[in-house]
Amino acid sequence: MNAAMKKNSGIYLATLEIVLLLLALQFFRPRALKRVFFVDYKTLFEKTKTVEIATFQTGEAWQGDFTLDTERSFDSETGLNFYSMGGKTNTITLTKRFDLSPVDTAHLSIFSPEASISQHIESLTLRFASSEKEMFESPISLKKAGWNYISIPLNSFTKAGSPDWKKIQSVSIILTSKKAATVQLSLDRIWAEKHDIPNPMISTPYGSFMNLKTVEGNTFLHTGSSDPFPLTIRQQSEGNRFAYIVSFIPLKHQTFCLTFNSAETRESGYLFCIEGGKLNEWKLLKQNHNKQTLLSKGALRGAAVEKNTYTWLRVEKDGPTIRAGISFNGTAFETVNSIKDASFDKGTLGIIAEGSYLINTIEVMK
What we know:
Radius of gyration: 27 Å
CATH architecture of the largest domain: Sandwich
Number of strands: 23
Order of helices and strands: HEHEEEEEEEEEEEEEEEEEEEEEE
Low-confidence stretches: 19-30
Distance between the termini: 54 Å
Structural class: mainly beta
Largest sheet: 11 strands, antiparallel
Number of helices: 2
Number of domains: 2
Shape: elongated
Mean pLDDT: 89
CATH topology of the largest domain: Jelly Rolls
Strand content: over 45%
Helix content: under 10%
């Protein structure tokens, strides 16, 4: 073989090696993730706004015998404690104009210190008045100790005079104890919404500590609870390669977690949580039955999560690799850590929230 042929042969082999390498890289290149699930609650609930009647914050001009509660409240910074003793009636009233004609169900959260509290109550009533002599009333029934989620259809209220749902002037809670009893209750939120709403696209049943909340004209999926409240996003297993992003607004923050590769019973799976007084601490954990193992933890390097501001949490799973991040604009994510753990390779996605949060968007990519 002459020199020219050897040179051409060498060039050919080198070119062939490059082509084969490029083909190999193309073949083994990770498949880009594509969006498989997305919900924007501001858009979904645009036509089902709530009427926020009372939040019991400083500045609401309630009248009657009461004190502000900073211990039990979970929806906002303060709730309201009120009581009746010796059979005396205590009426607490907020003078406020609002229109309940677009909605059909009133809701409120009431804390009862004991399950048998109803035995000590002569009457407990919710009243909406459009004048001093024109009002709607409904009894309130408490069934358990702790927080009671009360839901009352507006068409079940009795009338006095000719009240108008469009022209409500005040809301009142009227409590009368039995003669030999003392009753103290706590309130955290009063609002009204439509019974029929678009499907929230979450497997957890709607109601109780998951509802809607309209803030500054935008309506969100809202979760509010004094205890960790779990939501399952989708029942199906997401496998072992995905990205899961949730954006939310903290109203009263304690702990907010993304759960992934979770068993349907929630006895096992991973958690990425932010917590602390300023939501400035993060943890990656895994749970196996009743045992919870800390995989990694730290403090946010940038700004802490602020109340009433949008926050994005993101977890990515690629085989045993887990990456967790946070963002305050939905674009630039701070990766808090990247670890490897192969304990779970399938399961559902979800949220565990303690406190009060507006869920803005949920996105899954695979």
